[in-house]
Amino acid sequence: MARIPDEAIERIKGEVSLVRLVESSGVELKRHGKDWHGRCPFHDDKTPSLVVSEDKNLWHCLGACNTGGTVIDWTMRMQGVSFRHAVELLRDGSLSSLAAKEKSEIRPLKYGSTAKLPSALSAQADDGRLMQRVVAYYHTTLKQSPEAQAYLKGRGLASAELIDTFQIGFSNRTLGYRLPEKNRAEGAALRSKLQALGILRESGHEHFNGSIVIPIFDTHGHAVQLYGRKLLDNLRAGTPKHLYLPRPHAGVFNRQHLAGAKEVILCEALIDALTFWSAGFRHVTTAYGVNGFTDELMAFLVEQKTQRVLLAYDRDVAGDAAALELAPKLMAAGIEVFRILFPHGLDANAYALKVQPAAKSLGVAIRGAVWMGKGTQPSPIETAPEHIVGWRALPSRAPPAEPSTTSEAVSVSALAADAGAVAPVLPEPTLASPMPAMPSIDVPIEVRAHEILLLLGDRRWR
User: Fold this and answer.
1) Angle at Cα 413 formed by Cα 412 and Cα 416, nearest 5°?
2) What are φ and ψ of residue 284, in 5° steps?
């Protein structure tokens, strides 16, 4: 989680009236010279030993406690919470609004009962409703988090339409601040339910803390799985960047835009699927990682009579191997399979960020998809967002190999070598920034300032 800026902390220390905050905690203060005195609530104080300096906005106990500090220290001690939690309470206004009131308006609270952030959840809600409330809370948190929005912008995924359509959220550890204290019946019951759902760990910490959170829904619109991606890459050794709820994978991502689609783009990861969606290719879904293609997703593709799948897995050893393993399974179900070949080492998101505009560069990649087989002549690839100028359907072409059975896999290198049968016809993409030298790929490639030249068979493509 991002560090709280020093200026925000200093502003709280200076703007929140300590005298009003102490009085709102139920401590009666009396003027004694320039300071205020009262009985310290942190020990059995027979005579007033608490001193509050109005000028310095500091407090100190001269008795058994022998401690003191700022409005933040007072809140930490009175509420029994962490420094960050105390700052959230004061910054949220639950306490600072009390501290800003005139003394005549203050109604003393019981000792130790200062206001808490309103709860976002209810222990009476069933699991489905509780999950829905968690998703809504994370979604709201993302819209209030500059750091989370900056991360999405850096991945080219900052559009309000995208964020709202998929209810993308952010977990920054503040959900726990909204729960009743764990020593209360309501707080204990809520924490137990959230632990059972996997939102909280046994330690009480949020499972997705520091992560962008993307929900996956079932046919009824209920969130049945959550994916989390850490904002930071410089994590402690052993800390995973990618997280799911500790339960079986469930749900079909982007189900609402796949109904009736004859052709489906299948990605390896959610970030890549969101990249295609943002570029206008709405009939896209994803597996749960390189080996996370589920029986539920297969059943969905078969049920809706999907004719062809374009595998947009990462262009690395793991992605290539997973694509070759998955292709025969799809073919066996009567689905025609193509492989989208990004430059080596790139995934859909990295490719879209390097070659702009993303709609055109991804369109080129789609039209360069290599046929992996079905046992019949491939039909034209029709994928195209309507706003791309110069699109035309790919004409039928002979398959690169004649598989004797639907389970026979074609090697990636062989597929790439046959890529000369594909003719990209979209307008020339422009680079967002100079392309770095790319690793060796299966075809000769020359990168210039504003173009990429490829030699495919006896043809030269720009």
Assistant:
1) 85
2) -130, 145
DSSP assigned state of 432: S
Q: Running DSSP on this structure, what letter comes out for residue 95?
A: T
Q: How far apart are CA 73 and CA 86, in angstroms?
A: 8
H-helix or E-strand containing 24?
Answer: helix 18-24
Q: How far is CA 323 from CA 94, 264, 268, 337, in A?
A: 53, 15, 9, 10
CA pair distance 52, 379, nearest whole angstrom: 80
Question: CA 70 → CA 9, 58, 60, 110, distances in Å?
Answer: 11, 5, 9, 21
Query: pTM of the full predicted structure?
Result: 0.64
Alpha-carbon distances of 97 from 16, 20, 92, 105, 263, rounded to whole Å: 8, 10, 9, 12, 56
Rg of the chain's alpha carbons, rounded to an integer?
Answer: 29
Judged against a pLDDT cut of 50, whether residue 393 lies above it is answered with no
| Measured distance CA(232)–CA(2) in Å, rounded | 10
Residue 300 phi/psi, 5° resolution?
-65, -45
Q: Are 140 and 197 in contact (CB under 8 A)?
A: no
Q: What percent of the chain has pLDDT over 90?
A: 47
User: Over the stretch 412-447, which tens digit does the pLDDT of each residue have?
Assistant: 344 444 333 333 333 333 334 333 343 444 555 565
What does the block give as tokens for 149? Answer: 């929005």
